[in-house]
Amino acid sequence: MGAIFVERDVPEGFGGTFVTFRAPPLLRNPAMENPASKTLINESDSCSGLTSATLRPALVPIKTMGMSMFVSFARPLAIVAGLVASAAQAQPGTGTGAQVMGWVPAYGIDASLKAFAATPAIGQSMTRLGLQLWNPSADGKGVVLAPVDATGKPVTAASVKLLTRWARAHGVQPLLTVYNNSQVIDRWDWQWARRAFVDHPDDFTAALVAAVDKWELDGVDLDLEGEGQLEADRAPYAAFVHQLAAALRAKGKLLTVDSFHSPCTNAPNLRWWSDWVGDVATIHSMGYEDLYEGSRATFTPEGRPVCENGAALFRYSWQLDYGMKAGYRRDQIVMGMPTWVDSWGSGGMGPGLVDHLREVRALGAGVGLWDMQLAAPGWAKPATWDAVQALRKPANALARRTPVLDHEVPRTALSDTAFVSERSAVSTRFRSSPAPVR
Fold first, then answer.
1. Span 390-426, pLDDT tens digits
2. pTM score, two decimals?
3. Numbered ranges of CATH 3.20.20.80 in the chain
4. Angstrom distance (rounded) from CA 64 to CA 410
5. Cα dihedral sign for 213, 214, 219, 220?
6. Which residue, 343, 335, 347, is CA-closest to 376?
7. Residue 92, preceding bond cis, omega within 30 degrees?
């Protein structure tokens, strides 16, 4: 893969040439990849004719692993070399723009591959693919391939390689998603997770990094979930995130975390987000059908007061504001979207799938698609993937200033205040298509 290439899709109002530095997975030194990549500007179709004369001295927008900036190309080779060095020291996930994350569950590998084949635009739209194919080992010291069904039959090595090959072929970063649920136990087992990150954090960290290396993946997506009031585990979870992030960063790999979508119960949740600043590339707020910009719902945990003084905390904008106040950029917050339906909620820009994608784009956030079986018909439509691709275009910088309009909602359709239980989202989080697992 060439070190730089020229893109012709230049943001309106920018003069000069839009040049993107291309490197393999985040923070990796391209010179370590292969002999061809040791040349900063390679002879290739994507950059043929690219010379110092072509790169005339001018202010040119540069987008690279860790930054977006305008630079002069009076001495292009020296500049690109400097960008390589800077990228190696960048914070996780910085400067890459809105992410489009999707997950392949252990029980949905074949269906996901069929969806990929049926809709080529998926490969042009995704940025990361969470392979939810691993569990902690029973003793918490290692990681094992998860079962594909209730019989306990594990995911095969061939399936892992097939999915990784698809991701690589489409420029998508494959991540190792480790989770504390399975088709065998059919529940989120927090004690199982604790055996790993509380009792054996060193062993668990080493096992995750080794698995990432073994399967040639780009990092870890941490999906350890617990139900109830688990604040006592906040500190050890944060310590583990910091430890794992450091170990991954040392190898040029990234870490992402999946989170519940309220700050008032379950683990991990929004209140924990501030603990991970500087360690995680993105946070995935897994609210699915609960999340939409027109939401007026409040949330009251079982046996506790209403969360956040009755705020409409399931609006995309509320979630994003919370994340930014915690110390993240807007593109580091990823809104979970359900793919077993293609219409949900009301108000905002509308209830349709494309409406919700437009709502997120207007805010400059990313989307996380659970899951890539894409059961609802709307996820196979070209207009959907046009809207997904729009999330990643430079127009985001302008679109994020666009207010999200709240359509009039008939009082018969939605009361001023709705009450939802976050526990209902736990069952939808672990769902197969078309029918729920549980």
1. 998 754 443 433 444 443 333 233 333 333 333 343 3
2. 0.74
3. 100-429
4. 47
5. negative
6. 343
7. no
